[in-house]
Amino acid sequence: MLQQLVSECAAGPPAHWENLTVPAYLEAMGAWLEAYEQAFINTGAECPTIGWNDFAKAVRAATVYE
């Protein structure tokens, strides 16, 4: 996953990315992870332990999450 993101950035910032700086990217990743957990809380479902697949989703989602 990370290699794919590096490849996307190789020629400059991708047009479809919203978060182009490290601080903006990390803020978006944190917000996405909180929203992920909150979605389970809102439905009354038990939030699963966040594993590597979920972390990979967060890494990808942080490129565009607002």
Query: Share of helix among residues?
Result: 55-70%
Global outline? elongated
Q: Structural class of the helix and strand makeup?
A: mainly alpha
Mean pLDDT: 84
* DSSP strand count: 0
Main sheet record: none
User: How many structurally independent domains?
Assistant: 1
The run of helices and strands is HHH
Low-confidence segments, given as residue ranges, are none
Q: How far is the first residue's CA from the last residue's CA?
A: 20 Å
Alpha carbon gyration radius: 13 Å
Give the strand content.
under 5%
Total of helices: 3
Give the helices and strands, then pairings.
Layout: H1 2-9, H2 22-43, H3 52-61
Q: How is this structure best summarized?
A:
The protein has helices at 2-9, 22-43, 52-61.
Kindly describe this structure:
- By secondary structure, the chain is an all-alpha fold.
- It has one domain.
- The protein is built from 3 helices and no strands.
- It is elongated.
- 3% of the residues are buried.
What tags apply to this protein structure?
elongated, 66 residues
